[in-house]
Automatic annotation (TrEMBL), chain A:
Protein name: tRNA (adenine(58)-N(1))-methyltransferase non-catalytic subunit TRM6
Complexes and interactors: Heterotetramer.
GO cellular component: nucleus; tRNA (m1A) methyltransferase complex
A Pfam family the protein falls into: Gcd10p
Keyword tRNA processing belongs to the record: yes
InterPro entries named in the record: TRM6
GO BP, sorted A to Z: tRNA methylation
Subcellular location: Nucleus
Family: Belongs to the TRM6/GCD10 family.
Automatic annotation (TrEMBL), chain B:
EC number: 2.1.1.220
Residues covered by the tRNA (adenine(58)-N(1))-methyltransferase catalytic subunit TRM61 C-terminal domain: 70-360
An example Gene Ontology CC term for this record: nucleus
Catalytic activity line of the entry: adenosine(58) in tRNA + S-adenosyl-L-methionine = N(1)-methyladenosine(58) in tRNA + S-adenosyl-L-homocysteine + H(+)
UniProt lineage: Eukaryota, Fungi, Dikarya, Ascomycota, Saccharomycotina
Coiled coil ranges: 264-291
Alphabetic keyword roster: Coiled coil, Methyltransferase, Nucleus, S-adenosyl-L-methionine, Transferase, tRNA processing
Function (record text): Catalytic subunit of tRNA (adenine-N(1)-)-methyltransferase, which catalyzes the formation of N(1)-methyladenine at position 58 (m1A58) in initiator methionyl-tRNA.
UniProt superkingdom: Eukaryota
Protein name, UniProt field: tRNA (adenine(58)-N(1))-methyltransferase catalytic subunit TRM61
Cellular localization per UniProt: Nucleus
InterPro entries: SAM-dependent_MTases_sf, TRM61_C, tRNA_MeTrfase_Gcd14
């Protein structure tokens, strides 16, 4: 089983619910996952199916009620949502959805009077009862249409909208998707973490990855203030996931993350499915202080000298631990020296609220000629200031401020139009190339 | 590794480099020590580039006018190539191509199908990122041109991750068999290429004719993503119909709008300064008026003793209060004035490139029950 293609145990995946909401879950063996009003299911029932499969939760009356906790959502059974049913109302609607095939509709809404809740013959309590009988979403919706006082006065368009709304509420299906970087961004935006992710958008990040020429074999210098989201975008573009523990990366590239606090914050990577060792091999972290004021080789060598292997083996247990701690420190210091003084980076990628002209100009000294510098900002003004600073610095070629926006459409035949509302953010990018100025030639 | 897949340090004889003359003038050249690169600003011998690190500025003094002229020599990237490339057709620009690649989750694990190749702009971006690209072009001269170019760029023979095939996919589908006109070199017992694509990009006038053929080449055990690139909304409508019929789901059409901004400066001109300037003008006007009045008066009164007191024409001070440099030519950003940094959107924007219709498909929604059972049992026994 390939966890990049199929749902695998212990993997983090993202579930899409009928309401359009998303939820990140881990597929622990022998456990169950509750989706609130959309039901609950056993993880073992879905593992092994391809990522992207849509499942329906159904109850055939055989589930055992939880006597201790009445409010607990009972765990249902799983079946695949067959393709003809796999229509959320947003998709093809000609011919009519089956639910509307045998009901009357009106050419216009002339006779439709707004009666509020009274038009529905079923009371709230009756609907709740239906739900408790764990009747399927379709049954509930069919009953509601049957008991609707003026359903036949609605136009067919309005009926479709009604159906879509009720499906979002009463259907019990979900799609288990691969947790891509874009899916994680989408999840965070919907959750309301807009400020944390600096109002990024999929299109801006996609553009950043291309403009920065991110490949699997590069060494990239990165400042990421989003808690690891930007790093996750880079990782996914570079390697596309690690199929098994101990898998070696295609290309062998590295991301060097420079951080402003004493310790790096890459918390979001805990949802990624890369093994710990993989992340350690391909992500290096250095604080801003260490990057700009690295220790000298002499200092490090004077403080510690690694012992030959056989000598280490003969150390006593307590001493051995102390030795390994020191060795770790030593290797870390040597790494800092290399990353700060020797490595020439293949791109500089920044999403930070630090003052950009200083940050970009100072970090760029370590960027190789002809390599891109790409900076994301939520605000155009901070990039404008940066652009002017880089114009006056001959080490940067053609700094350009870019904006990209995606406009989604209602995608239904005969009813194509841009969505009425969309997310307004997305930020801006600055793109330049690091170059090496020549001295003015003598006459 | 090719010039597109390797990070090169220094410029060497035979390298394909991009010479940056200005934003809208980027020229690809092959470095040849016997050649000279000519611009209207001067001539740059390739010899001057060899051995220099990529990104170097090359500066010369022009012989006649003795002016300072320079170019930058860059290593090609797909995005720079898109800005410089010879257009054989309308091309897919970076705002669109980068969005498509991100939305379809492209990575080295991706196996992508692209039809048609066109000018090869998107092909270069795909080739940089994906594991393998199968590109199809139905126009014979364009196929040959693209094949030559891909070979020259090392995508076919060196990186070996691009296969280009001469094919009308709408009529003849996507399968690549031994004997077809293709860059693929068949092994001895190989009769057909196992494409197994999980990403499909269709830039065709009638994608609905190609969609039914996709079954032959898409991966069956995983989710496959598709994007159709069509300029007209009628094409989108027809595409949706066919996608639905062939079991594609999660359809969504989007438009991408990319914009570039120029960084400019606008002079800070305060109300106070404007009033002060008017005040200054008025004061000088009054001075003139009074002088004239006095001269007039003395003439009328005919007072000869005034001879000594007759005002000499006062020397008008040359520069009065002129806070905005009126009448002078002020360069944007002149340090003698105050400036506000502003952005200006590029004079012409690409207001419509194409509609992007995305769809997804999981062909075989099955699982290996035995394998799941085995995993569960082995984890229990631990």
């Amino acid at each position: 089983m390939d966890p990049l293609k199929q749902l695998a145990f212990d993997q983090h995946v993202i579930l899409r619910l009928p309401s359009g909401n998303r939820k990140i879950v881990q597929l622990k063996p022998n456990s169950s996952i509750s989706l609130g009003k959309f039901g609950a299911f056993h993880v073992n029932d879905i593992v092994g199916y391809p990522l992207g499969t849509t499942f329906e939760i159904y109850y055939d009356g055989t589930h055992e009620p939880d006597l201790k906790n009445q409010n607990r959502i009972p765990v249902g059974k799983i079946r695949l949502l067959s393709r003809t049913e796999n229509e959320t109302g947003e998709r093809e609607q000609s011919p009519l959805p089956a639910e509307l095939a045998n009901v009357l509709s009106s050419a216009n809404n002339q006779k439709l009077v707004n009666l509020g809740n009274d038009v529905q013959g079923l009371s709230m309590a009756q609907i709740e009862d239906l739900k408790n009988q764990t009747a399927s979403g379709e049954e509930i919706i069919a009953k509601m249409i049957e008991n609707h006082g003026s359903f036949d006065k609605k136009t067919v368009y309005s009926q479709e909208k009604y159906l879509k709304r009720k499906k979002q509420k009463f259907s019990k299906f979900f799609t288990a998707e691969y947790l891509s970087s874009s899916a994680m961004l989408q999840f965070l935006l919907e959750k309301g973490d807009v400020q944390r992710v600096m109002d990024m958008s999929q299109e801006s990040l996609g553009m950043l990855l291309n403009l920065a020429n991110i490949r699997s074999n590069g060494t990239y210098l990165c400042v990421d203030e989003t808690g690891g989201l930007l790093v996750y975008f880079l990782l996914e573009r570079m390697f596309g996931g690690a199929s098994e523990a101990g898998a070696t990366a295609i290309g062998g590239g590295t991301i060097v993350v420079v951080h402003e606090n004493e310790h790096p914050n890459l918390d979001l990577l805990k949802f990624s499915n890369y093994p710990e060792s993989f992340l350690k091999d391909h992500i290096k972290t250095v604080s801003l202080l260490d990057f700009f004021e690295p220790p000298s080789s002499q200092q490090v060598e004077a403080a510690f000298t690694p012992l030959p292997k056989d000598q280490v083996r003969s150390l006593k247990a307590g001493k051995k631990n102390a030795y390994y701690r020191r060795l770790k420190w030593y290797n870390n210091q040597r790494q800092i020296i290399t990353l700060a003084n020797e490595t020439e980076y293949d791109a500089l990628v920044i999403a930070s609220t630090l003052h950009l002209p200083q940050l970009v100009q100072r970090l760029s000294t370590r960027v190789h000629g002809s390599r891109p510098v790409v900076c994301y900002s939520q605000y155009k003004e901070t990039l404008l200031e940066l652009a002017h600073a880089l114009y006056d610095d001959l080490r940067f070629l053609a700094p350009t401020i870019l904006e990209t926006r995606c406009r989604p459409y209602q995608t239904v035949r005969g009813k194509l139009h841009p969505l009425m509302t969309m997310h307004g953010g997305g930020g801006y990018l600055l793109w330049a190339h690091r170059v090496i100025p020549a001295a003015e030639p003598a006459i | 590794m090719s010039v597109f897949s390797e990070y090169k340090d220094c410029i060497a004889e035979g390298d394909l480099v991009l010479v940056w003359i200005s934003r809208d003038n980027i020229k690809p050249i092959k470095v040849d020590s016997n050649e000279v690169f000519n611009t209207r600003y001067g001539s740059f011998p390739h010899e001057m580039m060899i051995g220099k690190p990529y990104g170097s500025q090359i500066a010369i003094r022009t012989k006649g006018t003795n002016k300072f002229a320079f170019i930058h020599v860059l290593q090609p990237t797909p995005e720079l190539w898109t800005l410089s490339l010879p257009h054989r057709t309308q091309i897919v620009y970076t705002p669109d191509s980068s969005y498509i690649m991100e939305r379809l989750n492209c990575s080295p694990r991706t196996r992508a199908v692209e039809a048609g190749t066109g000018s090869g702009s998107f092909s270069h971006a795909f080739a940089r990122t994906v594991g393998h690209l199968y590109s199809y072009e139905f126009h014979q001269p364009r196929y040959e041109e693209a094949l030559r170019e891909f070979k020259e760029h090392g995508l076919v023979d060196i990186d070996k991750n691009v296969t280009i095939t001469h094919r009308d996919v709408c009529r003849d589908g996507f399968r690549i068999r031994n004997g077809d006109v293709t860059s693929h070199l068949f092994g001895e017992n190989e009769t057909e290429v196992a494409v197994g694509a999980d990403v499909v990009f269709l830039d065709l006038p009638a994608p609905w004719d190609a969609i039914p053929h996709l079954e032959d080449v898409i991966s069956k055990d995983e989710k496959v993503g598709l994007c159709c690139f069509s300029p007209c909304i009628e094409q989108v409508d027809k595409t949706i119909e066919v996608l639905n019929r062939y079991g594609w789901s999660d359809l969504q059409m989007v438009e991408i709008q990319g914009k570039q901004f120029e960084s400019r400066r606008q002079m800070v001109r305060t109300l106070d300064d404007a009033i002060e300037r008017l005040r200054d003008v008025k004061r000088r006007k009054n001075e003139g008026l009074e002088r004239r009045k006095r001269m007039c008066d003395s003439l009328l009164n005919d007072q000869p003793e005034a001879d000594e007191t007759v005002e000499k024409r006062p020397i008008t001070e040359k520069t009065k209060f002129n806070p905005f440099g009126k009448g002078a030519r002020v360069k944007e950003g002149d340090a003698n004035y105050k400036w506000k940094q502003v952005t200006k959107v590029e004079p012409e924007i690409k207001s419509h490139t194409s509609y992007l219709t995305f769809a997804f498909k999981v062909a075989n929604q099955i699982r290996n029950e035995e394998a799941i059972q085995r995993i569960l049992e082995s984890s229990e026994s631990k």
